[in-house]
Amino acid sequence: MRRVLLATCLTSVAALAAGGAWASEELVKMSANPKDWVMPAGDYANTRYSKLNQINAQNVGKLQVAWTFSTGVLRGHEGGPLIVGNMMYVHTPFPNKVYALDLSQDNKIVWRYEPKQDPNVIPVMCCDTVNRGVAYGDGKIFLHQADDKLVAIDAKTGAHVWTAVNGDPSKGQTGTSAPLVVKDKVLVGTSGGEFGVQCSMTAYDIKSGKQVWKAYSEGPDDQILFDANTTALGKPVGKDSSLKTWQGDQWKTGGGCTWGWVSYDPQLDMVYYGSGNPSTWNPKQRPGDNKWSMTVFARHADTGVAKWVYQMTPHDEWDYDGVNEMILSDQAINGQPRKLLTHFDRNGLGYTLDRTNGELLVAEKYDPKVNWTSGVDMDKNSATYGRPKVVDQYSTDKQGEDVNTKGICPAALGTKDEQPAAYSPDTQLFYVPTNHVCMDYEPFKVSYTAGQPYVGATLSMYPPAGETHMGNFIAWDGKTGKIAWSNKEPFSVWSGALATAGGVVFYGTLEGYLKAVDAKTGKELYKFKTPSGIIGNVTTYENGGKQYVAVLSGVGGWAGIGLAAGLTDPTAGLGAVGGYAALSNYTALGGALTVFSLPQ
């Protein structure tokens, strides 16, 4: 590993204190300071909300570029920087460089960390070489490398502290997710659903890197960490709840990957995350509900044992991964205060659950064009309570192998992919970047070989019939399951949102615009075109008494894979290359951080 230490800058990291208390206690206090941005989503609740209001709806139109930083890396730049005191930590796609910048010394590079990784990991990464960010805790920066290693780096010096091997890239296991520090542990998932990996969430000791617990998404109870008290929709799941839903030992190559976001409720001491698609994409080859793929997990932080689960898309037929963020809020429903979990699933349904027990409260379409289901059975007395009602016309299982089922909405990349939404306690609305895309889907028989693609479907993508725009940025009421307002975008909105106390919501576009809109009305207040398409998450912080807004640009990800990887076959990139072919008319490759502020 190559590290550069500028000792003269060490005084600027006084805020990086590692005490005897659990790191989560430290992080709860630090995240309450709006000047910093100490977790990938800003806080444990994944709200992506900031109390800063120096930049507001009245003056945001005056924003200017304050400074920029080139990452020196191409391809898709997802995630965003951390800001801890005077230090900013910026990450990149493969090879997963990390830069420490001193904001008090003209953004000087204090150290840089660049892992030496085998480039053969690149073709094993499903949908670009992205990385969704680093985590901070216990005086360390935690990086989930593309080769599925979790690395701890000294936050002051950039020195390597420890490495944990989370998976084996030769079998299709890779790392794209942002870790989360919880108490004395670091949690990290894995990618590899398109390679038939049996996926898991793992907790490592924050000081040593030793594995504390590992919870698989499917398999026997001792592997998925279920016990007699684990429930689904209020009822015990029972013994071998996963094994009974797979044919033979298909669960061993079952997917259910965990490459999305993790949230944590310190009061309940519970972690929440979602699992992805079952493998293969051909539903005919894996009869049954394929539990617990496509599932919201609520687990005890110390042991990993599941308290409750909810499977959103049983026997997935469309690749509707359930890994998107779980946003925690406290709101009143029908006059009763509730501890809520809100999740915008790839399948096009926005879910609100009680996070204490997994009770399903709301399940509604957040794009009216969603057609694979007519809705979720909300009758608690029904045998199919909580299950989506599948429309036969758009069922790739019922249509069968080697049949091209057309006009399915949403496409496999979902009404929303991993790009995280934001929640404002001021408006009690969620601000959601969405895809407005449909698909044709033809499953075919495929055999499993370790380390080789295990997909079994050919796709093409396009906007809904009669429409030309491929994205919307919406405001959503999670209590009622209704859209408050919606702004059209020519391409999918693949950027994470940011809501602020200034009444402004920020997001980026695939063409490269940073946009600011009014939180109440959606009215556009500002836009600026950055050097490349934005698939990063907008961040805000305060330094030297001034509020800044920062975003990574660098087109790529699933939607931009054609540009990122130089692909031209319309069906390549699992159908995205053809769907987003016009994107090359608006942007080009590049990796840069752009930081904005109001004029002096």
Describe what is shown at a glance.
The protein is mostly beta strands. The protein has one domain (37-112, 207-597): Quinoprotein alcohol dehydrogenase-like superfamily (Methanol Dehydrogenase, Chain A).
Structural class computed from helices and strand pairing: mainly beta
Level-1 CATH class name: Mainly Beta
CATH architecture: 8 Propeller
Could you give the order of strands across the largest sheet? Answer: 17-16-21-20-19-18
Average of per-residue pLDDT values? 95
Instruction: Look up the CATH topology.
Output: Methanol Dehydrogenase, Chain A
Q: How big is the Rg?
A: 22 Å
The amount of beta strand, in percent, is 35-45%
pLDDT < 50 runs, ≥5 residues: 1-20
CATH homologous superfamily? Quinoprotein alcohol dehydrogenase-like superfamily
Helix tally?
A: 5
Distance between the termini: 41 Å
Q: How many β-strand stretches?
A: 41
Number of domains: 1
Q: How much helical structure, as a percent, in the residues?
A: under 10%
Sketch the major β-sheet.
6 strands, mixed
Shape: globular
Signal peptide: 1-23
InterPro entries: PQQ_b-propeller_rpt, PQQ_MeOH/EtOH_DH, PQQ_rpt_dom, Quinoprotein_ADH-like_sf, Quinoprotein_DH_CS
Binding site for pyrroloquinoline quinone: 78, 132, 176
Pfam families: PQQ
Considering the chains and any ligands shown, give keywords for the structure.
signal; 5 helices; Methanol Dehydrogenase, Chain A; disordered N terminus; five-stranded antiparallel sheet; calcium ion binding; globular; 41 strands; mainly beta; about 600 residues; oxidoreductase activity, acting on CH-OH group of donors
